[in-house]
Amino acid sequence: MKSTTATFILAASILAFAGTASAKVTCDDVKAKIEAKLQGKGVKAYTLTIVPKDEASDLRVVGTCDGGAKKILYKRG
Predict the structure, then answer these.
(1) Which residue has the higher pLDDT, 18 or 35?
(2) Angle CA(5)–CA(7)–CA(16) in degrees, nearest 5?
(3) Cα 51 from Cα 70, distance rounded (Å)
(4) Disulfide: which of 4, 17, 63, 66 matches 72 by Cβ 3.0-4.6 Å?
(5) Other CB atoms within 10 A of residue 30 CB
(6) Cα separation of 50 and 63, whole Å?
(7) Does residue 38 surpass a pLDDT of 60?
């Protein structure tokens, strides 16, 4: 009986983790949070650009989104 209960608990834990791990944060949500932080710090002139994660750039990466498929780049000015 103990092994059946342990197996059930393990399976339930795996399913619960799989549900939260697969949840993707949208790029718009992440970008809005970054903009709020920048505005809170008084930053006025900047550009945030969403690009695929594999795109090469010299700009600073300030966030990732869509399950790591994209990144958000920061450009001052």
Answers:
(1) 35
(2) 105
(3) 6
(4) 63
(5) 20
(6) 9
(7) yes
